[in-house]
């Protein structure tokens, strides 16, 4: 089982790059995107959070169910859904303003994973009290034998020194760390993490693992926007780990050939996502067909 921990929210996305354009609600949040993407790929996946029982929360829950995501550890509360107002630049890149006070996911009470894979990241690690509980679950899951993955997905609004030190405090429990090239300098030295995957935007994706390093280029597509691109990569990576039946020891034994296969799958999945408006992640057969050039 892959267990994804963290927030689900609603992105209010402008219909054009005009800042006064009408806003279109879209389901989002890094962990939500990862969980739903994994479900669409056919992974055995669970989402742990706390959802609102408002209209947005109800839509989020149904979308996860439709993707085949397990929700037995995802309770519902009266608190509202977190909102993120998105601004799009001319190149399709996105920035966000968050409305998080008193929202449901801040009160999540996650549980540990014994074995399997545990994925943590994004806004949920920046907001107490849930952030402290997620860090405890990551540590407990690592001690219980899970492959713990971290995608900090650092948002400028929360990129404080306190948040940096909080994330660094998690690193000893992490097997796989995914960073964007912009996040590398913020987080600092990550040599204690055995596997670090770095996304390079349109240039592709690289990995530093026990075997050494390698980079896989991204396929060229027309970019609609970049919403959900990094989340798709995190989902594709963990899908591949599960599909290959890798425990922590097996993952650390992967060589360059296997990593290039894994990274190729991930960049093709992400390319499909950025070719679509919003975080509309692909299904497995779409990725495989794209890799085959169909």
From TrEMBL:
Pfam families linked: PfkB
Gene3D superfamilies per UniProt: 3.40.1190.20
Molecular-function GO term, any one: ATP binding
Entry keyword set: ATP-binding, Kinase, Nucleotide-binding, Transferase
ATP-binding keyword on record: yes
E.C. numbers: 2.7.1.15
PROSITE patterns tied to this protein: PFKB_KINASES_2
Organism domain of life: Bacteria
Alphabetical list of InterPro entries matching this protein: Carboh/pur_kinase_PfkB_CS (IPR002173), PfkB_Carbo_kinase (IPR050306), PfkB_dom (IPR011611), Ribokinase-like (IPR029056)
Residues of the Carbohydrate kinase PfkB domain: 2-282
Entry's family note: Belongs to the carbohydrate kinase PfkB family.
PANTHER family: HEXOKINASE FAMILY MEMBER, PSEUDOURIDINE KINASE-RELATED
Protein name: Fructokinase
Species: Corynebacterium imitans
Classification lineage: Bacteria, Bacillati, Actinomycetota, Actinomycetes, Mycobacteriales
Gene from which this protein is expressed: cscK
């Amino acid at each position: 089982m892959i267990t994804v921990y963290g927030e689900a929210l609603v992105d209010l996305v402008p219909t054009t790059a005009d800042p006064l354009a009408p806003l279109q609600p879209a389901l989002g949040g890094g962990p939500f995107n990862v969980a739903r993407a994994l479900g669409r790929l056919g992974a055995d996946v669970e989402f742990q959070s706390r959802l609102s029982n408002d209209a947005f929360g109800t839509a989020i829950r149904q979308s996860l169910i439709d993707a085949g995501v397990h929700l037995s550890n995802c309770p519902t509360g009266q608190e509202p859904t977190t909102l993120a107002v998105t601004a799009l630049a001319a190149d399709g890149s996105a920035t966000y303003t968050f409305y998080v006070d008193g929202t449901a996911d801040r009160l999540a009470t996650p549980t540990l994973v014994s074995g399997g894979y545990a994925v943590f990241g994004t806004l949920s690690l920046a907001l107490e009290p849930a952030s402290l509980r997620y860090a405890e679950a990551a540590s407990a899951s690592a001690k219980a034998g899970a492959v713990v993955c971290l995608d900090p997905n650092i948002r400028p609004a929360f990129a404080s020194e306190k948040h940096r030190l909080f994330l660094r405090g998690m690193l000893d429990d992490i097997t796989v760390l995914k960073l964007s090239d912009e996040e590398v300098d913020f987080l600092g030295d990550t040599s204690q993490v055995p596997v670090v995957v770095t996304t390079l935007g349109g240039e592709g994706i690289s990995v530093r693992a026990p075997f050494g390093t390698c980079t896989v280029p991204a396929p060229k597509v027309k970019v609609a926007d970049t919403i959900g691109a990094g989340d798709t990569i995190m989902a594709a990576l963990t899908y591949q780990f599960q599909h290959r039946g890798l425990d922590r020891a097996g993952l650390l034994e992967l060589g360059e050939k296997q990593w290039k296969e894994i990274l190729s799958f991930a960049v093709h999945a992400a390319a499909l996502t950025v070719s679509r408006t919003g975080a509309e992640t692909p299904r497995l057969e779409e990725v495989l067909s794209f890799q085959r050039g169909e």
